[in-house]
Specification:
Layout (H helix, E strand, L loop, with lengths): L1 E5 L3 H11 L3 E3 L2 H7 L3 H12 L6 E4 L7 H12 L5 E6 L2 H12 L4 E6 L2 H9 L4 E4 L1 H6 L5 H14 L4 E7 L2 H10 L3 E4 L1 H7 L3 H15 L5
Parallel strand pairs: 1-2, 1-8, 2-3, 3-4, 4-5, 5-6, 6-7, 7-8
Helix pairs in contact: 4-5, 6-8
């Protein structure tokens, strides 16, 4: 399974690359806003960090676009800025039509804001590179999420689709594990989610006990 960082903060991205060897980045308008920088400034800054690698950076089109033509036009402009960019398009009727056009033009698309297996099926049919089911948002709304990723993975296996399942809105280590058990290709999570997921209080306790034993034992 690949780990992507869900962030547009360059310090978090650098840390995640250096310490965790993350496999890619996903961003959205809320992350860009949190970075405190302009949209073009921040995505180009991220692109420079990934230059010379094949690690993908998901960059979202303007969410105000409601027509396929507008989505495609902006997607083409963004894709031209970096070979690492994968363009995030929403799972709307206009978004699906834009996906179809962009796939035919050789532009990689991350079909985002997916909340059903039916949406994921259409995304794969039309050639999405990634499909992003949002598990945390569904769970926060009181919806059951355990079957969503499993269903998408099973459908893709049934028809040998090449679209990768990128589980998004991951809120905790349990979500990461459940995505892996379900057979997802990728999870994308925020900086603090990974920090918490890679830690455990018993690990710290065990180190304290071993350190005390080490200190009490002659070395030679």
């Amino acid at each position: 399974m690949k780990f992507f960082l869900d962030s547009a903060k360059i310090d978090e991205i650098r840390y995640a690359l250096d310490m965790w060897n993350i496999d890619g980045v996903t961003s959205n308008p809320r992350h860009v806003l949190a970075s405190g920088k302009s949209f073009l400034q921040v995505i180009q800054e991220i692109a420079r960090e990934f230059a010379g690698t094949d690690k993908p950076i998901s960059v979202e089109v303007n969410p105000h676009h409601t027509t396929p033509e507008a989505m495609v036009a902006e997607a083409l402009r963004l894709a031209a800025l970096s070979p690492n960019f994968v363009i995030k398009i929403p799972a709307t009727e206009a978004g699906f039509r834009a996906l179809w056009t962009l796939h035919d033009k050789g532009v990689r698309v991350n079909l985002t804001l997916v909340f059903s297996a039916a949406q994921a099926l259409q995304a794969a049919r039309l050639g999405a590179t990634f499909v992003s089911p949002f598990v945390g948002w569904k769970e926060a709304n009181g919806e059951e999420i355990s079957h969503l990723v499993r269903e998408i993975v099973q459908i893709y296996d049934n028809y040998d689709f090449t679209t990768e399942v990128l589980v998004a809105a991951v809120r905790n280590a349990r979500h990461i594990v459940e995505a892996a058990v379900a057979g997802a290709d990728i999870v994308t999570a925020g900086f603090e989610v990974y920090k918490d997921a890679f830690d455990h209080p018993y690990t710290a306790l065990g180190l304290q006990r071993f350190a005390a034993a080490w200190d009490a034992t002659p070395y030679e």
